[in-house]
Amino acid sequence: MSQLYVPALDDPSRDPFRVEVDSFLLGAGTLGRCVSVQQAFSRSRAQIGLDGIDNYMIQIFRKGRCHARAPGGDTILDAGDICIFDNAEPLDTVNEDFDLMALAVPRDRLAPLLHDPEGLHYRCIGRNTPLARLFRSHILDVYRMAPRMRVEEGPEVFSALLQFLAAVINSGRDQTCEQKALLRQSVLQEVRRHIDTNLESDSLTVEDIASRFGISRTGLYRHFEPYGGVAAFVRQRRLAAAYQKLTDPRSEPLNNNVIAASVGFQSESAFIRAFRRRYGMTPGDARRQRHAIALPDPSGASSRYTWSEWFAGL
């Protein structure tokens, strides 16, 4: 980071300096995380001329904020926002105690994908826009997977990130087929994650999900058409979660009312009918299976429980 920016403690008496940085090379770009105390950063025209670095730095603050002294006036970039810095332009910022993700992108890789590649310096894309939420989640997923990636996978992952980033910056206008496909997959992944973590909620309706993710009802139906529709998919996930609760030998036995409520069914009778249609047995029949399922072998050997849990999660 000191290659790009000149750091300086904004208030040396405030806290001892500390920093944690890790970064992964993904083909032509890098993705990393930086955690540190309040810090001032600058990049002068002299430094720009000296190092010749010509790329964009995309930052997403997980914690803290960035106070930027921009030519058009001071601005604050909040946690969750997508912040874009053009490293061919001077920079003058102060970060509060922060935890951020940073994606470095060569100009010649990103600019051709943008409608207006100029004027991006200090650009902020609000954290609550649907595309920003999806991109933020995607960046974190890539960062978590990066240590397990093979070197040859890096360029492919980076190319996909570029397409996604370009769609976010272009605000969804005139996307290429590749960008549209990537966004569709990302939306589907995020919606599925939202459903699985909110099975007990009564707000998993088409209207609520479409509003939360900023997509039309028609688009949402199209995403879930292979599953029989949104309601059918939600019901399948609720029943799969109930099946796992019923057959998990490590969990405390629960009665049907409690399990039904925990996965979003309004009544025990509706839960039993749906469960029987889905699995060809009653919840009571499934509950009795827990006694025939072996607990995991402490030695690490494979067991029937592992397979049962895997199938229940499909």
Structural class: alpha+beta
Provide the spatial order of strands within the biggest beta sheet: 2-3-10-5-8-11
Name of the CATH architecture of the largest domain: Sandwich
Total strands: the figure is 11
Uncertain residue segments? 294-314
CATH topology group of the largest domain: Jelly Rolls
Query: Could you name the CATH class of the largest domain?
Result: Mainly Beta
Give the CA-based shape.
elongated
Q: Please, how many domains?
A: 2
Strand content: 15-25%
Give average pLDDT, whole number. 82
Radius of gyration: 24 Å
Distance between the termini: 43 Å
Counting DSSP H or I runs of 4 or more residues, the number of helices is 12
SSE topology string: EEEEHEEEEEEHEHHHHHHHHHH
Can you give the helix content as a percent range? 40-55%
Query: What does the largest sheet look like?
Result: 6 strands, antiparallel
Looking at this structure, what is the CATH superfamily of the largest domain? Regulatory protein AraC
InterPro entries: AraC-bd_2, AraC_XylS_family_regulators, Homeodomain-like_sf, HTH_AraC
GO molecular function, one term: DNA-binding transcription factor activity
Domain HTH araC/xylS-type: 189-289
Pfam families: AraC_binding_2, HTH_18
